[in-house]
Predict the structure.
Amino acid sequence: MEHTKGENKMGIMPVNKLLINMAAPMILSMLVQALYNVVDSVFVAKLSQDALNAVSLAFPIQNLMISVGVGTGVGINTLVARSLGEKNQKRADAAAVNGLFLAFLSCLVFTVLGLTCSRLYYAIQTDIAGIVDYGQDYLTIVCGLSFGIFTGVTLDRILQATGRTFLTMITQLVGAITNIILDPIMIFGLFGFPRMEVAGAALATVIGQILAACLSVYFSAKKNPDVHISFKHFRPDGEIIRSIYNVGVPSIIMSSIGSVMVFGVNQILISFTATATAVFGVYFKLQSFIFMPVFGLNNGMVPIVSYNYGARKPDRITATIKLSMIYAVIFMLVGFLIFQIFPDKLLALFTAENETVVDPVTGIPELITLGIPALRTISLSFLIAGFSVVCSATFQALAHGVLSLVVSLVRQLVVLLPIAFVLSRIGGLAAIWYAWPIAEVISVALCVFFLLRVYKKDLKPMLADSKTGKF
């Protein structure tokens, strides 16, 4: 950490340099996470389309679990960073300890659900025995051993709140690389290991998460003197928990809405063909390569904005937001070009060598024939999505998490899901994919409206005060 006269680097370093310094490690680690997501499905797809469908249908539950962990972490991150900016050490420490307590409770809930309800979750979606069997194996392990992801995500957010994004990059890299290495070994039974198929993919995932969590514990104890974590005489603090969830709950709900949307879209798609749900699952894996760097950028941006909001430095806040939007738009433009130019090559990664589901006319795997127009159509939304993603993170950093929630709710449930249903009835399978760019246009309009409100309410008065020397 760089300090000048006791000041955290987030309050003094040139903004562009600081944003790159904070975000670059997170972007790299997010890219590796995205690589792990893709590699995981590539190996599973080599087993069969049933296996790929089982992993794809697990996404809503996995996303819900990650949403709870990350959403709570956003609340912790924001409160810790703001408290440090206000020079309130006691409150920063309390936020960290109470946050870990909340992570433990969340883990307990998902462990019980994973061990008791995994088969039922698949049985209500499909009667294909292969998908149900594979899915039960996968979800039982991923949820039943979820303590690794909850511990790691929470501690990483605390490290990020103090500017130590390089350390969180290490934890996430170690977890993802471990997963990538173990995937083929456990799925196909290499080097003397038993062939575990989809269960092997799940076990590789949780082993990587647990190892990353162990590193996070070490870094938090030995490398983060700005926050002191101790459970001695601990009692849950209602006021701290409310402050965490004031930001965290909207973030949790916002991310969880994605699970509802995916579940709903899968039900629309599976009425056409099971391959369509596989295409949608592949899209979600591939789009993570585009969105993960933007999320990494956000992870670097949020503590900068929160810290300077607490320190009442509005010029640094606005400069950080503007630069983040520029970088996000560049990332998404690159993603748009990749999806437009190479959709067939991207989809080919997810077809088994003995693929039996093929187009009767061309003989090409149906995953590819259905997937090419899907990827090209959905990626139209990338052109403006970067702006919306940064706006949502900005609302969270300035303690307006409800605005992020409203944007996500409107985009995914009020607009995207109903439009996808209507388009499926009007234009069939090919028309469904236009729901994404339509929803993104409405999302951007809403973000502009909310951003102007936040600026007038929070930043404009702060800028005026800074010019008159009131603080």
Confidence is low (pLDDT under 50) at residues 1-5. Residues 60 and 260 are 7 Å apart (CA to CA). The radius of gyration is 22 Å. The chain is about 80% helix and 0% strand.
